[in-house]
């Protein structure tokens, strides 16, 4: 999959709802549900492409995603795979954005840049124990 800019800078904002749906398709296409280790490089490449496209977009892009990591640990391997990859996707895309808001309890909370992200100090978004 290749991402490219297709809109002039005067284009209206774009709404992407939801990154979890995009990720589910990518997990299907890369067969990450059955073969997570073999799918890892391709899945990371696709996430990197998306983050690069978001960062380079000439228009305002609003991305909606689910929050992961604050709830219970999923009982199934597929649930844990989804949770881990969505966390990686969220961190990667958030690093590509100028502003990140966490909406909870009817409030939008502005999140500071991640210490390890491009707007911070610079580390790999993937946790050491992920996947």
Q: What is the topology, as strand order, of the major beta sheet?
A: 1-2
Largest sheet: 2 strands, parallel
Binned strand content: 5-15%
> How many H/I helical runs?
3
Tell me the total number of β-strands: 4
Ranges with pLDDT <50 over ≥5 residues? 1-5, 120-131
Helix content: 25-40%
Roughly how many Å apart are the termini?
Answer: 23 Å
3D structure, described in words:
The chain is of the alpha+beta class. It has helices at 19-29, 36-56, 77-96; strands spanning 14-17, 61-64, 100-104, 107-111. The longest helix has 21 residues, at 36-56. Residues 1-5 and 120-131 have low confidence and may be disordered.
Brief sketch in words of this structure:
The chain has 131 residues and is α+β, with helices and mostly antiparallel strands.
Task: Fill in the keyword field for this structure.
14% strand, 131 residues, two-stranded parallel ribbon, two-stranded antiparallel sheet, alpha+beta
What is this structure's SSE topology?
Blueprint: E1 14-17, H1 19-29, H2 36-56, E2 61-64, H3 77-96, E3 100-104, E4 107-111
Parallel strand pairs: 1-2
Antiparallel strand pairs: 3-4
